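Mods, move this if it's the wrong board.
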Amino acid sequence: MDFVLVHGTTQSPAGWDRVAKLLAAAGHRTIAVDLLTPRELPVEGYAQHARDQYDGERPVVVAHSGAGVLLPAIAEALDARALVWVAAYIPDFAGGRSLRDEARSVLEPDWIGVDPTADPAKASEFLFHDCDPETERLALDSLRLFDPAVLAAHPAGAAPEIPSTVIVPTRDRTLRPDWLRRAARERLGVTAIEIDAGHCPQMSRPAEICGILTGSRR
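Not the wrong board. Structure tokens:
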């Protein structure tokens, strides 16, 4: 099976390295796309940018954090067989509100206004607090800002018809776990899978994420 891994707003594709290695060892093909471009694009532009980096058919598309805004469009562009939201914002498909409109409901209050890429201590506090020292070092090396205006301002379109899995880290300090549980149920019609992790379980719990992706843990 093919997996397309989509980084969030504060990490490069290297944030997926541990998960990608485990998936490859299990016989799966993976590509961690890079959304960073010389100029900002509309949502459809980022979807095409992801499409240009993938040469397979019908992957599972996995998105982290703010990349949830882009996940439906990327999934459509790649003709995805399934979507996985890892601590990822789920758009307001019915109401059409943007992430900016919902920020105070979605994000933990202490996270709003923080730029972890400019302050390693803040990154450790909010993103990597559940990592062991070696993992934290690797995680800090993966820091990179990707925050085009479209992520905050894009109004949600129609809900995807592709099957979704939502992963909720219960110790997330950036995106509110209670909000994500509710959004999974109300916006996608699924019950979230909860894991004991912070906002970046692809770093701190890669084997558990891999198990969920491959169906060995449901």
